[in-house]
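re: ur question from earlier - yeah i can do the single chain one, its not a big deal. heres the input i used so u can compare w yours
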Amino acid sequence: MVEQQEASDDAVMTRIGQAIMLLHGGDREEARNRFGALWSELGADGDALHRCTLAHYMADTQDDPGDELAWDLRALTAAEGLRADEGPGDGEGPGGTEGRGGARAAGRPDTPAVRAFYPSLHLNLAADYLKLQRPDSARIHLRRARAAAESLADDGYGGGVRAAIDRLELRMREQ
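and the output i got, formated as tokens:
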């Protein structure tokens, strides 16, 4: 049963990855359609890592800044669901596999990956709020992005996120 669940989880991440490739290839509409279908399949109680990843990228397919914000907030909510499943200091959820997304978060390496998502999640929210002319909210999330970025490795991903934070901060100062 566990092996079947893991194979199913891998299939969902593969499908999310395929939609991400469509998005990065320039086919926003098809990516949005596939993300939407997957979101319907996952439902509100679906795996939190899947919901976080999907919503994070679904936001990038949106034409309306308000819709983009809504999807970025869904991604943050899902990430916080994974964090809530962790026990104090051990990375394990209460009872090991309980709670929304807990089976995925507990005892697996995904939770640190989601923590590494936090700087990007907050950066996207800051950019969303700036587009919506809500600079106070943008500043709050930019501060959160910078604070969360301190835990990122000094690699390409970490450097890229830090550079994006710096660019958005500069853009906000110039306005």
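Confidence is low (pLDDT under 50) at residues 87-109. not sure if urs matches, ping me
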